[in-house]
Amino acid sequence: MHQTSDRYEACRTAEDTAGRARTRERVDALVLTSTRRKHRIVDAGVRSGAPLRNDTTLVRLAAGGRDVHTSVHGTAPDSLVGALEAARRLLPFGRLYAEARPLLPDTTWDQVAFLDNTAETPDSLARLLTELQGLAEFVGPRQDVSLRIADCVLTVDHRATAFASPERPQAADYGVTRLELRTLVEVERAGRRIRLWTARHGHRLRELPMKEMLEEAGWRGAAMLASHAKPGPGAGNTLMLAPRAAASLLGLVVKDLVDGFPVSTGPFPATVLDDPTAVGGYHVHPFDEEGAPSGPTVLLGRTGTRTRLTCRGSGDGQGTVALTGHAARGGESEVPEALPSNVRLETASSDYAHDEYEGLLAYDLRGDGVQRMRSGSCFTVRLDVARLREGKVAHGAGTVVLTATTAEVLSAITATTPTRSYFPGRTHSVGGAWLSLDLSSLRFEYVA
Questions:
Q1: Which residues lie within the region annotated Disordered (predicted)?
Q2: pTM of the full predicted structure?
């Protein structure tokens, strides 16, 4: 894929569309291009699928205090003319709005950190499998298991985005590479084997946290193969969550904050931060789908202060709400709404060494009950846990059923490693790290 040519095409389409506004009309155009390709990498070689191209043009037409949104698959001029005509017919029924000012200045975008134009070269793909095999040979013995890479699939998605408006007749643009590395790991312990898929996401192939991915897979597989015993009195009150389980728990916290659930005043040992410019985040952007500059936003501070994410549709529609740069389409709607992008926990720096941890490890999280995790102000989750001794799984430990509020979970955090992995959803991704919780401050029970 030629990233430069795709960005040029996106800019040209956005500028041409925005320039079609009539007198007293405002036309904003956002052009999204994507070229996606899968590579399956095994000992026998590399099999690459055909590139899949997908282009979308989003158009906003505003006039007389109302606006409408529409989209077109592709960038053909005839389609864009038809979309504008359809928008003009719908304008009398459009949403009331008023222009709002951006909250943040234009973002300084480090293009190099988000692009990888060499990920699909034969040498890079061959080195990827060799590196994974080497890491498996290193990680496995430290966990008292044998790890083998049974299958590996790398999905590379090169994206270009351009935005043009009356204030930006010369389109602003950026490029991003989205990588998804899915690995089938075979874990063997005491003559028993299990295979499980694990994945990591990012922007640059050499920077994917592959060692962390295999550590998590090794412990998870060893726990599923080990004999089970309910934790005794000496199990302690500390629970360490693996990155994927930690991201699932943080995802519940984020939903509470975005949905406006009340959270008691801190202090909390961690800040919940949304960062559209996070390296490794799956939903990164220097500006949102309305062209407003994006940047880090504190969803919940340590003292309990909260920041509301906004877009043009937020508030009273009179332009009194400053734009935080979080306008994005959710679900099938063509109208942007205020959504998070890449959320993580920020804590004070520490020397927390997860690979030296001894105690209970939670390697999987799922909802509990018919309400799917939520009951009033609390959510209830089931955590599959194992007991670690000297970095190895001593035995499986059944399930911990945890019931807590957002404030209780945040208050129970005792230590965490820096966030290196983001786990993507449809509208935003959540950062996962090795996270330690103090169970004594939470409501929980062991289930054998």
A1: 1-20
A2: 0.92
